[in-house]
Here is the input.
Amino acid sequence: MHTTILVTGATGTVGREVVKQLSMVDGDIRVRAGVHSVIKGENLKRLPGVEIVEMDFEEPDSLHAAFTHVDKVFLITPFASDQIEMAKTLVDEARKAGVKHIVKLSALGAHAEPGIQLGRWHREIEKYIESSGMKYTFLRPASFMQNYIHYNTESIKKEGKFYGSTGDGKVSYVDARDIAAVGVEVLTSEGHEGKAYDITGPESLSNYEVAQLMSEVTGRQIDFIDVPDAAAKKGLTDHGTPDWMADALVELYSVQRAGKSNKTTDTVEKVAGRRPHSMRQFLQDHKECFV
Here is the structure.
């Protein structure tokens, strides 16, 4: 009997990788990739056994269709002002459809009290899932290595610099490929129900150390420039980031600057059965983004 797994946010950094890795798993697994736009999900159609389904929060029928005959869900919600309401809507749909297991992409430190705003948002969703009666697993990753591609490549290519307000605080950055590997193992094997996994890379690094690695990998000088919080927020808002989001990100940076994001775990090795990617390996694999 086959198992149908729905991945919401399937075109995002982690979602896309989860769909890709699920499509390569041996066994009778059907992968349903939930996307906001079918056009954006075109590349996922090339993967074996992947079905694309459009999910529009303004169209309840689309959500009902997406969850029909689904056994398990990898739940990713967008970083949006109404992300909690979106997540609760998806959890309600999953419960109505008889979903057996939800794996939620959360964040490292979500359980901390009082924590930071980003963590509190994730924890509220986690608690709602806990009260749903469905089996669940929470994945709580550190900051993604891929963020260096999404947010820093322009200044790195043009100036040989990237900016932030993290000082010399160390962070246990993790590759999205490793987050997905843990997620796929949780979705396709038993014994993970009711657990929360903190997921990190193998080392904690400051942005100064990341800049040094970038320089070594690319063969060009790349520097990290530390800036005050106010300048960091201005940089975000100047690029179109809403105030509420910029404030949450600057709060995260302050935690990182204080050295509170530097713990490493062996989750990838224990759950996925292999070592996580190092920052050097990540930069080598994506070298073209920085030169």
